[in-house]
Amino acid sequence: MVLRYSVLTALVGLLLLGGLGFTRFETGSMQDRQSPIEVSKETTVYTEPLDENGYLLVVEALRRHSSEGVTRENNAAVLWLEAIGFRAEGTVLDYQAEQLGSEIPPDDASFFRHGTPQPGPLDVFLPLEQLERVNQGPWGADECPEAAEWIEENEAALALVAEAVKRPRFYVPREGDHSWSLLLPDVQSSRSVARCLIARAYLRMEQSDYEGAWDDILTTYRLGRMSAKGAFLIESLVGVAIDSMAQQATSKWLETLPVMAPDLEKCLAEYDALGPIPRLADKVQNERLMLVDLANFVSQGNTLEDWPGLGAQMMVLFRRRIDWNLVLREAGGRYDRMGEIFAVQDPERRRELMAEFEEELRESNDAVQAKYENAGGIALQLFSGREEASKDVAVIFTGLIMPASAAILHAEDRSDTARQMTRLAFAIKAYQLEHGEFPASLDDLSDAGRSMPEGERSGVYPLTYRVNDEEVVLYQFGRNGEDDGGPPNDAAMPDASDDQGWRWRLR
């Protein structure tokens, strides 16, 4: 959904060079003027706090909303950031430490060390082949000695993470003046910690410590949910990715589980108690605040030189001719529509509605592009009214900021599918341990084993299950909607199939 903004910029150039008779541009500062934007749920989402000119303080509103009811005692972020040493992506998180009332530990403290083939001063060297191997299945310390040392060095940090993820709230104070420039350096650290947890789970499986391995997998699930509680969509997507890592480890744990196994019923109850990953749709309103922030910023006479195609001339046009309330209602309505689609429970209907929605967005974008494709079209736009121009800006802003809705929906669908697959894996393994063989079909499982907990969604596509002398396979079709024969046979070739599920080797 990318418009050709260079063409729009050309239009603005014509307005400034040949159309100055239509609008008188004043050169005085606009930053002391009262806001032209109505503060309401329909336009600005939140109605307070406001600055002295009546503009919503977007970042502060987001902070207040995200931190409501959060205390130092119930906030997972306090222990989480302590576990990573208040360091991420080569920076010290001074702002977060100050806001949370924490101290920055010294460099030699026992906080999490990233394992990487190209370590920084505070990282641990880990050969790439070992980093990949320890996240594919059970492994031994003799096979990957540097990885074993990496895990041992992080024991204290992982113990603190295990405490952190049990806390019910997660709020990281974000540093920045505008919603589009808030810093989230700690987000990717959660993926590195998840890889370390899964690596230790596989190491423990190799050592026949299945209870310890399950503890690590459960902590990884909680870590994914902790990340997904963050205010921003990227935090949710990282949470989904971490959840997927835990799902794969669970499948491997069940595949290799011996007869004298931990209590599967208890483990399943712990898994069910986690609930699904927090809905990505819950982040839509926070993402919508970026529109409000952008409208505030531009309407005060500022420019966005770093945004492709949106130069200073276009910003002048925006702030002089645009009805910002109309822009925010039009663009905000699209966000509301997306949120409503995400809330639809029936997966097939949800996908149908999303396809219709994306087609409408494409048609709107095409219509705006068509206005500026040639000199004649550009000339006609010199006489367009304020309402039409405002609606065009709403389309432009939506294309700039609105996330790829279909991709978000696909991520949610895969998360729902993975949860369904994991519950079925527990049921299939329990059947095998009880009967000495795998079920011939899913119909052999109990109703409880085949159903999802009340209120939870199942996957989008029908299940495919087969068992023979060599393997047990359970999967659903992937995004292409086609049967590719099941999930990839080789973990090193994850793109060989689009199907989602698992396969257990019997030989």
Task: Give the structure's gist in a few sentences.
This protein is mainly α and 507 residues long.
Provide the fold topology.
Blueprint: H1 5-18, H2 58-67, H3 76-83, E1 87-88, E2 91-92, H4 94-100, E3 115-116, E4 124-125, H5 128-133, H6 145-153, H7 155-164, H8 187-206, H9 210-228, H10 233-256, H11 264-274, H12 284-299, H13 312-321, H14 324-342, H15 347-371, H16 375-381, H17 386-401, H18 405-435, H19 447-450, E5 464-467, E6 471-476, E7 500-505
Parallel strand pairs: 3-4
Antiparallel strand pairs: 1-2, 5-6, 6-7
Explain the overall architecture.
The chain has 507 residues and is mostly helical. It folds into 3 domains: 5-43 and 293-403, no CATH class; 71-168 and 186-278, no CATH class; 423-507, no CATH class. The protein has 19 helices and 7 strands. The protein has helices spanning 5-18, 58-67, 76-83, 94-100, 128-133, 145-153, 155-164, 187-206, 210-228, 233-256, 264-274, 284-299, 312-321, 324-342, 347-371, 375-381, 386-401, 405-435, 447-450, and strands at residues 87-88, 91-92, 115-116, 124-125, 464-467, 471-476, 500-505. A 3-stranded antiparallel sheet has the order 5-6-7. Helix 8 runs antiparallel to helix 9 (210-228). The longest helix is centred in the last third of the chain and has 31 residues, at 405-435. Residues 1-30 have low confidence and may be disordered.
| Percentage of residues in helical conformation | 40-55%
Radius of gyration in whole Å, from Cα? 26 Å
Assembly type of the chains comes to single chain
Q: Order of helices and strands, N to C?
A: HHHEEHEEHHHHHHHHHHHHHHHEEE
Strand content: under 5%
- The strand order across the widest sheet is 5-6-7
Based on CA inertia axes, which overall geometry fits?
globular
Helix-strand makeup class: mainly alpha
- Secondary structure: number of strands: 7
Summed up, the helix count is 19
Number of domains in the coordinates?
3
Low-confidence parts, pLDDT < 50 over ≥5 residues? 1-30
